[in-house]
Fold this sequence. Notes:
The chain has four helices and ten strands. By secondary structure, it is an alpha+beta fold. A hairpin with a 2-residue loop joins strand 9 and strand 10.
Amino acid sequence: MKKDGDQKVIAVNKKASHDYFIQERLEAGIVLQGTEVKSIREGKINLKDSYAKVEGNEVFLLNCHISPYSHSSLFNHDPLRKRKLLLKKRQISKLIGKAIEKGQTVVPLKVYLKRNFVKVEIALAMGKKLYDKREDMKRKDGEKQMAQAFKARLQ
């Protein structure tokens, strides 16, 4: 868990930047049960295959796995339940307009604590093709080699 200013990052969706071109980012609150909040504070959340879906005038987070809280009784939450995201009407209508376009989707990028509230950073994203992924890997590999060569040159 990292601290970025006044926020404590709990989970990051690394696969999102690999599979999608990130276009626009939004911060959203999330409706959670008590045991889910405690489990998130322990870092037991997985965003790997999760996505957001607009249904009516509401946005829901799907396939986000929050493990059951370890110290709870038998009244625990469902790990893969549908969770409502809290956004303003203007933001939701903007998402509806852009998410209809072909290849557009809404993916969560990270979950963090901001002033003791759980927040989700979601992004409007467009899927990458296989050749785009290969191109990114080549570019990152080249940057890494340049940084290593520069570091070796300084020593």
